[in-house]
Specification:
Helices cover 78% and strands 0% of the residues. By secondary structure, it is an all-alpha fold. It has one domain: Ferritin, core subunit, four-helix bundle (Ferritin).
Length: 160
């Protein structure tokens, strides 16, 4: 038996986080177009959009209401994250790239945990057309790519 109240809160928390993550991915992509990292971010951003759509679809199929407030809160949190110091008064720096990749890593780790938790809770029987195993594998692949780019960004930002 699903605890619909707590499941709704939990999924809305992740939906809010996905709004922040998608905005961060788009911002990072804009700053890194035309590079190897930019190519990776194009794919990652598209996949984050798809995963977010899957989360919305899951909520629709489970007849759970979406919280506009939590989505706005996620976007506000992402915007506030832009206020951090990055070693420059204006513009994008190597530290900006590193911090954005760390933020994306944290977000994808949370998404990975979400899919695993839903599988563990037996949600699959309620929405058999949503392939949680595939979503888990995709999050793991995203983490692997982020790790490679994050470590390269750390080497660049912290050695200059």
């Amino acid at each position: 038996m699903l605890n619909r109240k707590l499941l709704g809160i939990y999924l809305n928390d992740h939906l809010g986080g996905s709004a922040a993550g998608l905005a961060l991915a788009r911002r990072c992509l804009r700053a890194n177009r035309g590079t190897e990292l930019g190519s990776f971010l194009e794919t990652l951003t598209r996949e984050i959009e798809e995963d977010r759509h899957t989360l919305v679809l899951l909520m629709v199929r489970l007849n759970l209401k979406r919280s506009a407030a939590k989505q706005v809160a996620g976007l506000v949190a992402e915007r506030l994250g832009r206020l951090k110091l990055n070693g420059q008064l204006t513009g994008y720096s190597d530290l900006s790239r590193l911090l954005e990749l760390e933020g994306l890593t944290i977000g994808v780790r949370g998404k990975h945990a979400l899919w695993q938790n839903l599988r563990s809770a037996g949600i699959q029987e309620h929405v058999p057309d949503i392939a949680l195993d595939r979503l888990i594998e995709r999050a793991e692949a995203q983490l692997s790519g982020l790790e490679r780019h994050r470590l390269a960004a750390a080497a660049t930002a912290l050695r200059n």
